[in-house]
Amino acid sequence: MKQWVVQDKEHGLDGLVFQKDAPMPKVGEYEVLVKIEAASLNYRDLIIPQGLYPFPTTLPVVPGSDGAGEVVAVGPKVVEFQKGDKVATLFNQGHQYGDVDIPATKTGLGGVIDGTLREYGVFEEKGLVKAPVNLNPVESSTLTCAAVTSWNALYGIRPLKPGQSVLVQGTGGVSIFGLQFAKAAGATVIATTSSAKKAERLKKLGADHIINYKTDPNWGETARKLTPGEAGVDHIIEVGGTGTLEQSFKCIKFEGVISVIGFLGGVDPKGQPSILDTLSSICTVRGVYVGSKAMMRDMVRAIEANDIHPVVDEKVFSLDQTRDAYDYMWAQKHFGKVAVKIA
């Protein structure tokens, strides 16, 4: 079969190697063989070959945490799946329910365990979930990391309630899923972007208010003024880093939650808000590391019940174009999820 492999961290994205004659994986007693029909990329996939990923990796490894496909064989002791089932992958294969722990962080798909950028993959039964019935394989392939992370941000510690407000930053996968989940829950959504074109697309997805952070660098105060009584935002999906975190503190509501997902804008220790800002703002700031299988199942049920469809970038790549997909995403040319169609 064909597959991609991250060989090392010394050559950056050139460490990605395309193998056209890799051996087919064999199915163990508790394992499932999946014909992978589609995969999608995350920022994590771009930084693993560059040695910038802060969690465990074991190289060489087949990259990609996100994937969806069809079960073509099951081991004799598998009970949850059968041949023909449509499935999606779980990010941390060992994170089944409850809080993430250190052992679970060492089971990351596409980092420690061979991932989804290949034609076939064997996964433990516990490392898969049934895909939403309302989605096609490309759509289902986007759920593993960004969607579950966004769901965890909104429901993992202080569940979002109808009528509350959510602020999402930019138009990456986590932020777009956050917008969709928040609107389905009956929340008001404030979105930030730097582009008039992207602002129009955010409006079509249901964003109630849009702020251009390039023309309004003090957007935190602007966002606060958009909330009832200027009390502030209930949930913030924080993906930017030092600069955006400073603004997030300016608009978070008392007892609100800032879920820190990433640092796309970089980290500047000198400009970083102090931990004491949590006291003056009376808020919770938490790091989010994707989510459990139980959480992913809850999310799938919500996707089916509300007929939510992931936003996939208009440019979909083939398996042999995966390196092009990496370059495309690294150049930030995408809107929503960058997908790779495999079968």
UniProtKB/TrEMBL annotation:
Judging by the UniProt lineage, the source's domain of life is Eukaryota
**Domain Enoyl reductase (ER), first and last residues per copy:** 12-340
Leader sequence range is: none
Give one Pfam hit by family name.
ADH_N
Q: What taxonomic lineage is listed for the species of origin?
A: Eukaryota, Fungi, Dikarya, Ascomycota, Pezizomycotina
Q: What is this protein called?
A: Putative Zinc-binding oxidoreductase
The UniProt GO MF terms for this protein read: oxidoreductase activity
Q: Which InterPro entries match?
A: ADH-like_C, ADH-like_N, ER, GroES-like_sf, NAD(P)-bd_dom_sf, Zinc_ADH-like
